[in-house]
């Protein structure tokens, strides 16, 4: 007994919290290359938290990310400085859990669940269990009702359902963060969880102070991990944001999860996988990255009937505005729809720069009435007709009367543009969005002879309506 107590006292100065230590297993550091630490002499499983203690008393928290033979590979959670060969590697019994509850709303935390906002320790009645409960996919409530996000173009033309997972695809600087901030403020969801992962550090404060503001923060939790954090921290932040959203969903609340960005999450995973020796495949991304994306995205969605929901938006950075980027491709396949922001529109000063033609909500046909769907199709047809003939129209080569639909498109185009635009301080809820859309298209639909109206009259839904 006394030897155990001796060991306890000898280790005590090196440990962050002595009560969390399993004293019998300890290894030592033999290699440190790039981001990876290699240790021998301990047998721990992947995912286990350890603390690496240098001789001068520095402590670095690290996670086991792989092994080969007797070697264990670890990734530090924070930046590493001053570790030497032979530093002790001590497994922790469990990682510290964060407190959570309704009091957590309005707080900004990092990937470890520690507060970043200087408002003191987190309050809340419960400790957040690191592992989400499994939901049987057959028990998940189908997406059946729309969620009002407070953005006219999205509400009316790319309607998002409660529990739907959407992608927000755009190049850099096209307005992803601003659009997400607007949704946070104006949505009718009960709680908003924002994950800011791998973005510029300056942007985190800007997003919280200017884009969200006190109004947006009231029912939001922000999990932030800027670009200069260790990759493991960025990964943890993405996972924690999902976990926090799951917690509120399990309380029966409707949660809106906004993750900026999925690409940075994939890049953090790429850094880790390459560092531990996984071979790169597409564009330098190892195969495990493409497995991690669905794993993260699948955590959002509806719970069982009568329980809460997580509606999620994941921003996807399309580098060089390339929609064929492997991450964009893989995200598009797993998500239930995407909103594309267009650089051309942003350059023309149209904000939010939503490219309506390229955006789609796969759940929309199941959650809106037929009339709404027809209006959306009319809008898209007219916009697309204008864009097809845009060059001719611009140089004056289109002669009026050649095509009735094009004539209407030219007449309506300024209004179609104005419909998409929305001021930063303006919220447009679902009923108003629909009234605006009806008002915009009503004269078109009432002109029975127009090709557009003829097309509508042919739709099966319309036939049913008239019988
Ligand atoms: N709705 C809007 N109204 C007016 N200006 C806007 C709007 N949305 C975006 N902008 C302008 O576009 C700029 C970039 O927007 P934002 O920071 O949201 O882009 P981003 O896509 O998140 O960029 P990054 O990829 O760098 O994170 C803003 O600083 C602002 O000037
Ligand atoms: Mg941004």
Distance between the terminal alpha carbons, to the nearest Å?
A: 88 Å
Backbone structural class? alpha/beta
**What ligands does this structure carry?**
adenosine-5'-triphosphate, magnesium ion
Number of alpha- plus pi-helical segments: 16
Return Rg in Å: 26 Å
Main sheet? 9 strands, mixed
The chain-level mean pLDDT equals: 84
Strand content: 15-25%
Count of strand segments? 17
The shape is: elongated
Low-confidence stretches: 447-467
Residues in helix, %: 25-40%
Q: How would you summarize the topology of this molecule?
A:
Elements: H1 2-11, E1 27-33, E2 36-40, E3 49-53, E4 59-68, E5 71-76, E6 88-91, E7 99-100, E8 108-109, E9 126-127, H2 152-157, E10 165-170, H3 176-186, E11 191-197, H4 201-217, E12 220-225, H5 231-250, E13 254-260, H6 262-275, H7 287-297, E14 301-302, E15 309-317, H8 326-334, E16 337-340, H9 343-347, E17 360-361, H10 364-367, H11 370-388, H12 390-394, H13 404-420, H14 430-446, H15 451-458, H16 460-466
Parallel strand pairs: 8-12, 10-15, 10-16, 11-12, 11-13, 13-15
Antiparallel strand pairs: 1-2, 1-6, 2-5, 3-4, 3-6, 4-5, 7-9, 14-15, 16-17
Helix pairs in contact: 3-4, 5-6, 6-7, 7-8, 11-13, 11-14, 13-14
Bound molecules: adenosine-5'-triphosphate and magnesium ion (MG).
